[in-house]
């Protein structure tokens, strides 16, 4: 069922392409850290407690990288209701001595809404006959 509420552009989720790009960047970064841990585990001597730390990083980072990369971004938390509008500030007018005609100073708002009515069929030349 379609919602009757208007959709706010600020409440839309992140675009799928941008979301996938951000998740791939997180995964790639964690895999780079894993490779660094593996190299440090083998290269740093003398072997000690930090060797085990680098080994644990090289072993467990792939799991955490996949879990973190598979978490999709949620919807926007700071959504602004669509009926809320920026107030227009009145334009200051320079003072003049000449009398001016009364001008309607109320702001004009144009609201568009969709209707569920089907559009009319296009006219054909046989309709004119």
Automatic annotation (TrEMBL):
<dbReference type="Pfam" id="PF11298">
    <property type="entry name" value="DUF3099"/>
</dbReference>
<feature type="transmembrane region" description="Helical">
    <location>
        <begin position="27"/>
        <end position="44"/>
    </location>
</feature>
<feature type="transmembrane region" description="Helical">
    <location>
        <begin position="50"/>
        <end position="73"/>
    </location>
</feature>
<feature type="region of interest" description="Disordered">
    <location>
        <begin position="83"/>
        <end position="129"/>
    </location>
</feature>
<dbReference type="InterPro" id="IPR021449">
    <property type="entry name" value="DUF3099"/>
</dbReference>
<keyword id="KW-1133">Transmembrane helix</keyword>
<keyword id="KW-0812">Transmembrane</keyword>
<protein>
    <recommendedName>
        <fullName>DUF3099 domain-containing protein</fullName>
    </recommendedName>
</protein>
<keyword id="KW-0472">Membrane</keyword>
